[in-house]
Amino acid sequence: MAEPRPGLALRFQRRFLAARPLRSLPWPELEQSLRTAPDSALLADILAKTVLHPLCVKYPPSAKYRRCFLTELIKKLESTAAEPLDELYEALADVLKEEEESPHCYKNYLLPTGDSVSLRESTALISGGTTGLVTWEAALPLAQWALHNPGLFRDRTVLELGSGIGLTGIAICKTCQPRTFIFSDCHPRVLRQLGENIQLNGFIPEPDVTWSTQTESQGQEVGGEKCQNPKVIVAELDWGSVTEKQLLGLRADIVIAADVVYDPEIISALIGMLQKLSTSRADRKAPEVFIASTIRNPDTYQLFQAELDKVGIRWQMIPAPSSCDFLYDVQPDVTILQLFI
Asked: Which of 87, 127, 260, 273 could staple 239 via S-S, CB 3.0–4.6 A?
């Protein structure tokens, strides 16, 4: 049983650091392994790669999540003839000492490059009057798709709509070498948390500037140079009020978005903004647009497609990634549309 253990511990690590649902962890495989070879060394390896992993120690998931995880590990240990593991009980004791549950937790997403994206996010789906303080499902497949297509982003200016707390954009900045990446959202608390997460991952956003200053700053970039450390901008962007001139000033070559098609009431504003992007291009080529969506309500998604057809924006579906090399469970109900504006 020595051979499969590293793979099993690694699968626990990948899901644990991303704070995936506990039921998605490979518990049956662990139990079978322990019954076949009752050795607490396997549990020690899992503990080292999860709760005691440096990323978890520095940016821990919620106390409740860690407590439930450790409790389940102890159940597996005690259901076999494996020797007791003091480190496991000590880790649980440390978690139980935490008197209050923090309203925030950290999630750590491991990239195929060996790098990671660390995010501070809310433990509640709705917090501060917004749902933008958690990572939404489509951000994960969109990030993986980008990592499979780095040439689309290399040495280009990328505008992300509805960036939320930053998973997709930070992953692209770390792996795809864009020249400039513009994170955007409209909720003040989301923008504040987004800025903190960007800095948490080693990037320094440009100072809060006006649209006209952003235009000038973008124009000073040195042509043809590939950027190892992209220029990062956090912009407050309201789809309903943004002007064609402001969008032109961003000089976006490629536009991406994840889970922005979830409410029929915002579809009109989104499509209106896409039309402004198209007409604001002047003598520049229109940006390439890619929107990833989790299909929660088919009627809402079909409405989005119908409204695109109505205004003459062509679209085609791109298969979402089916592999798991981004180290998470791929959501089967996520689609990516390429729009031709």
From this structure: 273
